[in-house]
């Protein structure tokens, strides 16, 4: 397999993955509506976990296929990209507010999640017990959002989950719902396997570890939905609510995706290996980005063009540092 084909396989896999995830969520939400399930239950289960399904499926496939660098790299790289790229670029077109209800609290939780991942991977692996603890944290977080929905329904993260049932484009007929569910269920693992195959081969051809592919191409690809959401919100001058999408994604990446991948690896009799390079560099970039965002949010100042430009430059510097440290060689 050539490098061009390997990269094409990754990109096609990402498209298939995101397309399948969207179909699965919309089909499941429509089915839940037919069963008259409460909006809160739908939002806190189908929508909350469904939005992380692409990353989760990729990370599980990578962990079980002997490519843990892709799994952990996807989590860490996505969290870095969400702060520096997903928030940075849209802020160049419209200020992103940081004073929405619950944003300070959610930013703190996202920061704690980053610290939890670093602690779990400090010894070079995330074992079954640590994976269970991480996944228990996302269950607790979902329960917490459920409590918030009763006391503070204006929290943007809660509002986003509850609006799914009334979103446009939900299928009406039973046949369409069934087709969406079937295609989504098939597309998710299929796209994930394409990504793992292409990522492993691309890393081999470039003379780098699969970690680099996970931190860059895969992380950016799986962050596209968040990027699109924030960018559209910035153009519409509604970016005050967009930051909740990014913070929620970072929390789910660590607790749901990281915990789920470690559980899958543990169930298979192995551990989710964490390369030494994460402790040397990438973990601290993730923690630094999360800390910077948290401190900025504490000021309640919007993320404007200057700050957005600095975030974007920071992401460019991070990618350049990865290229320099890994000495990427084109075949």
UniProtKB/TrEMBL annotation:
Membrane-topology annotation of the record: Multi-pass membrane protein
InterPro entries: K/Na/Ca-exchanger, NaCa_Exmemb, NCX_ion-bd_dom_sf
Domain Sodium/calcium exchanger membrane region, residue spans: 6-143, 178-321
One Pfam entry name: Na_Ca_ex
Subcellular location: Membrane
Residues annotated as transmembrane: 6-25, 37-60, 80-99, 106-122, 128-147, 177-200, 212-235, 247-269, 281-299, 306-325
Gene3D superfamilies linked: NCX, central ion-binding region
Matches recorded under PANTHER family: INNER MEMBRANE PROTEIN YRBG (PTHR10846:SF8), SODIUM/POTASSIUM/CALCIUM EXCHANGER (PTHR10846)
Protein name listed in UniProt: Calcium/sodium antiporter
Organism listed in the record: Hyphobacterium marinum
Taxonomic classification: Bacteria, Pseudomonadati, Pseudomonadota, Alphaproteobacteria, Maricaulales
């Amino acid at each position: 397999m050539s490098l061009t084909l390997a990269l094409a396989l990754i990109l096609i896999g990402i498209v298939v993955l995101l397309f399948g995830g969207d179909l699965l969520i919309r089909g499941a939400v429509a089915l839940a509506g037919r069963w008259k399930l409460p909006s809160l239950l739908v939002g806190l289960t189908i929508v909350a976990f469904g939005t992380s399904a692409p990353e989760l499926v990729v990370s599980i496939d990578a962990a079980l296929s002997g490519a843990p660098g892709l799994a952990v790299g996807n989590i860490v790289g996505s969290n870095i990209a969400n702060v520096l790229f997903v928030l940075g670029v849209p802020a160049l077109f419209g200020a992103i507010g940081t004073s929405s209800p619950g944003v300070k609290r959610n930013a703190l939780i996202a920061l704690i999640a980053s610290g939890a991942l670093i602690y779990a991977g400090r010894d070079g692996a995330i074992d079954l017990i640590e994976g269970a603890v991480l996944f228990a944290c996302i269950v607790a977080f979902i329960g917490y959002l459920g409590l918030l929905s009763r006391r503070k329904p204006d929290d943007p993260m809660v509002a986003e989950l509850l609006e799914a049932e009334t979103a446009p484009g939900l299928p009406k007929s039973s046949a369409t719902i069934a087709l969406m569910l079937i295609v989504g269920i098939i597309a998710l693992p299929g796209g994930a396997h394409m990504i793992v195959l292409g990522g492993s081969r691309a890393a081999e051809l470039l003379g780098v570890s699969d970690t680099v592919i996970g931190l860059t191409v895969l992380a950016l690809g799986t962050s596209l939905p968040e990027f699109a959401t924030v960018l559209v919100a910035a153009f519409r001058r509604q970016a005050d609510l967009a930051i909740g999408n990014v913070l929620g994604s970072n929390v789910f990446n660590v607790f749901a995706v990281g915990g789920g991948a470690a559980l899958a690896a543990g169930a298979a009799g192995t551990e989710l290996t964490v390369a030494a390079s994460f402790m040397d560099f990438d973990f601290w970039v993730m923690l630094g980005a999360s800390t910077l965002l948290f401190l900025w949010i504490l000021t309640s100042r919007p993320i404007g063009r200057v700050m957005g430009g600095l975030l974007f430059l920071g992401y460019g510097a991070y990618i350049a540092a990865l290229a320099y440290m890994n000495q990427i060689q084109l075949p």
